[in-house]
Give the backbone structure.
Amino acid sequence: MVALYDRSYSPRALAEHAGSLSQFAGVRLMTLGDGVERGIRCLEFRTGTGLRFTVLVDRCMDIADCEHRGRAIGWHSPTGFRHPGLHEYEGEGGLAWLRSFSGLMVTAGLDHTLFMHDDEAGHYNYGPRQRVASSLHGRVGTIPARLTGYGERWEGDRCILWCEGVVQQATMFGEDLHLVRRIEADVGGDAIRLHDRVVNHGFYRTPHMLLYHINVGHPVLAEGARYLAPIRDVVWAAHAGEGYRASGVGYAAIPAPQAAFHEQVWQHEMAADADGRVPVALVNDALGFGFQVETAKAQFPCQYEWQALQAGQYALGIEPSTNHVLGKSFARERGELIELEHGEERRYDTIFTVLDGRDALAAAEARIRGIAEQPADPFPEPSGDYPAIVR
């Protein structure tokens, strides 16, 4: 049965109340028409509970807007959802990615994540190409998808909204990696299910790294909001050292927007539940409102927390990653870098859930604390202990 408007509907009963499901919920293909966003195809999902989000087909099928009952969840930066044709991947010494950085979720990869890096290219067997130069967070986030389908599907009494597409990151004499992305949400539900497959279609052995930059904004993010996670250890902090406490902002409690705040990034070693799942949430107790990201520890063994709490760019990022924060060279030296042969693939299954009401917040917090109690000290000393990643 579909739960809507405080009652349950069979497929027949729901159909009796309107000429089309789109009155209540659905997926609609649209094209943005103005400014830097002009020409971007997007899919609008509405589940009927007040959950609405958009998928940018022409930007890696990432999630841009996200709101629940009129309350924003997804973060909007000053850049807007910039058309990929305007993006200059090599610009600003590799930092031009920041000019296209906005939305609830931005995908980083597929062969590189994190800061700029030059890698050996001998495995691509092309003499003039000695190095692979990668900019911040890789190329995939500004590549348009080939949309392979979208719509609504009934499975018995359950109605699933879905879309699927393929994002191809490829070059001559280099990588040919395909991201096959499927996004689902149930009519009557408050969760978004993300299913990704990354497949090597080329015939070179190719590095693979993946990171989701999941960015939560106001009003979930607000003074007094709390970051909840089953933290076993704080591995690394970008601002560690003599000035570690200078900002006055620890990992767990969120302040109001700051006039001159420098971003802070932490790597936390997370514990998983009995099913190997890792839930992380940002909760606003005053509003009774929150947002949870649930990943598989085996798929994303590493997690970062990004705090961009400066005025005008106020955001918190939950960042599951295939690798430690020290990047590709560190991963290769430790034998932890994923390398895919032709036809090999990796799968990633992630769930985003709106936490609506104090009961939902309490249940999420109880689940997270039942897996591991996070540090009481808002400035836990980073251990520098990077656990081995076993693939």
